[in-house]
Structures are given as C-alpha cells and as structure tokens.
Amino acid sequence: MPENVGFLAEGPRVALRHFTLDDGPEFTARARESRSLHRPWLFPPADVDAYAVYAGRLIEDPTKAGFLVCERDGGGIAGFININNIVHGGFLCGALGYGAFAHAAGRGLMTEALDLVVRYAFGELGLHRLEINVQPANAGSVALARACGFRLEGFSPAFIHIDGAWRDHERWAITAEMTKPR
Hints:
The longest helix has 14 residues, at 109-122. Strand 1 and strand 2 form a beta hairpin. 32% of the residues are buried. Helix 1 packs across helix 3. This protein has a domain at 9-130: 3-Layer(aba) Sandwich (Aminopeptidase), CATH 3.40.630.30. By secondary structure, it is α+β, with helices and mostly antiparallel strands. Helices cover 27% and strands 34% of the residues. The chain has five helices and eight strands; from the N terminus they run ββαααβββαβαββ.
C-alpha cells in the first residue's frame, strides 16, 4: 500500500481507500492474474500506462469516485468498486462498476466492500440511489448485487458497448431508504 494513504471505511476483513497512481504495479499485476475471471465481462487496465489513464479519471473527474478494496490483513488490493456517472441535484445517483481479483474471489470480501461503498455513497457523498448494470449471464455479479440488497428493476437490450458489441444488461438498484441502519 502506498504510504500516507488512509482508509475511508473499514469492515472486519476489508477497508476502502481511493486509487493512487502509485497503485499501478500491484493493480495491473492483479488484473493480469485475473484475466480469465474477468473475461468476457470486465477489462481492467493490465499495464501501468493504461492504469495511469484509468486511475487519473477516477482521481480527477468529479462525476466518478473510485475505491480500492484492500484486505485488512496485509493491505493487498482484493478488488475495486467505482461509482460512475454521479449526478447531483434532484437525481443524486451513481452507477456502480466493480471487480474482484482472482486471489480474493469467492471469499465474501466484495460483499463486505460493496456494503461499505453503499454506506459511504449514501452518507459521505450524499447520494440517494445507486445502480448496477450487469450482463444477465454474469452470475457472480448478479449474486453480489442481490446479496447487498439491490433490487432487479428491469432489462435493457443492447445497453452497453463491451468488447466490440452492444450487450444486454439487467438493471439493479438500491436507494438510501432500502438500506438497514447499522
């Protein structure tokens, strides 16, 4: 973990922090190790130059908030969760994107982390609604949305352009009123 980087939220096994440019080597190594897990759903940057562009957008763009999911035991990066397309005013909404790295997949770390991001978004960021758009065959992503209390709101054919084609997506969402007090 880069020096002088504090956690934004902590759970029993994971903690969240913002992306830094110094995370490039670890993030991209984890992305390369996780290629078979991520395909065909997700294409995180696999080299340091691509990471710098990716992380730079998350760091600089006020319509985005990026979170690295770090294991509390050792601080290694287990995954990432980004809030994209943040809209303020009467909408107060953002669209989530996320990915676990292979070494952390199936251990419940992303469920814990997504719960932390939801609380952070509805608290610190002042949002009211979060959405997840997921390809229906991505069973892991659908299971994560369901486990964290998101509700299925609909189906959008040819919704997002991924890997050279327009892909169908299910729309999942959660609002501040749907979250349990902690």
